Amino acid sequence: xxxxxxxxxxxxxATFALLAKRQGLNVSLMEAREGPSRETRSLALSxxxxxxxxxxxxxxxxxxxxxxxAIHTSQKGGFGRSLITREDGGVPALGYVLTYADLQTALDAxxxxxxxxxxxxxxxxxxxxxxxxxxxxxxxAGGEHIREAAVVVLADGGANLGKVPAIxxxxxxxxxxxxxxxxxxxxxxxxxxxxxxxxxxxxxxxxHGGTKEYAMVWVSSPARIDALKALDDAAFLDAFQQxxxxxxxxxxxxxxxxxxxxxxxxxxxRVSGNITVIGNAAQALHPVAGQGFNLGLxxxxxxxxxxxxxxxxxxxxxxxxxxxxxxxxxxNRDVERSVGFTDFLVGAFSNDHLAxxxxxxxxxxxxxxxxxxxxxxxxxxxxxxxx
Length: 387
Ligand SMILES: Cc1cc2nc3c(=O)[nH]c(=O)nc-3n(C[C@H](O)[C@H](O)[C@H](O)COP(=O)(O)OP(=O)(O)OC[C@H]3O[C@@H](n4cnc5c(N)ncnc54)[C@H](O)[C@@H]3O)c2cc1C
Known about the structure:
It contains 10 helices and 20 strands. By secondary structure, the chain is α+β, with helices and mostly antiparallel strands. The longest helix is centred in the last third of the chain and has 29 residues, at 321-349. Mean pLDDT is 86; it is low at 364-370.
């Protein structure tokens, strides 16, 4: 029974479906959302993620992404800054910024082209392991139903994570929240992204949209974020200007301010019997290093490859159990390193102690003057942790 059911046709679940289908696997999706996505959040993609979307045939025509050509990193109230350019990475762009809904539209269109079944309006509520298959319980059009699958790939962003047997969840609350928005300035960005570490948390600008437009992320305490969200536009622009400085020019307009709490969520295992987790269902990270979504796409890519290999080398009925075990083990290293890197940045840069401000400045200055350090950091941002 080569019947792989993916719960959640979001960016990671849909990408997995497309990659798996291209490699000859029989996949279908169940998705709670009925219509097109209206999610306005900006997603930052690494160069490696672009390659994965390219392999899924969703990169290119119709998908509008803004290229990142350089990343400026600095700390407020301290010396030291670093500049990583696309030349350091040896690639046309260090990364790309796009809107969630635009990516989802491109994925939905390709799912149709590839004739991958998507059961829309199906809200999954529980799973039961039945030895050789899994029963998926879901509600649709007011009724309760059950569907069988040989393998369940959980890509629902974490909605059903607590219901998977043998997977326990660890959460760390950073005591911070992120304020997101779309901001304009009077100066062209020329592909530059900025990350500024401040004692209250990082602030980032990612070029997105027009030549003077950025996706903004401001991390601070939840109380301060609530207060910033309540300001009128002019007062908010003033506050952000003071906080960020003038590196990106004078801020002129802000739109779409919204906030979310910042937590690290990891799982004890990525596999429970015939159920496996990918994307935000498997890990949710602080946005400081822009690693979370890229990790999710690498989950999708690796799982599709391992399941397709297992399908080709089919022995007996248990064709996928070894592949799932391998996926669980192989992804650990990448995830642990990305979580460690992100956690280190949050801890090391979110304070104002002189004892850490000085080494931080030295580290940023060293990254700037040492070509191998710049290249090393560029490769991590581009492709994730070394294998
Ligand atoms: C509030 C918020 C803001 C973020 N902002 C940024 C950002 O600015 N930049 C960035 O790079 N990353 C950001 N992230 C992270 C990024 O959005 C995720 O890494 C990415 O969306 C992960 O994709 P996914 O497909 O794994 O999960 P999701 O995007 O969560 O998709 C899950 C899919 O599953 C479906 N689903 C959910 N429950 C069920 C169910 N019970 N049954 C069936 N289907 C279901 C949903 O409808 C959805 O389509 C943010 C995350 C959050 C939560």
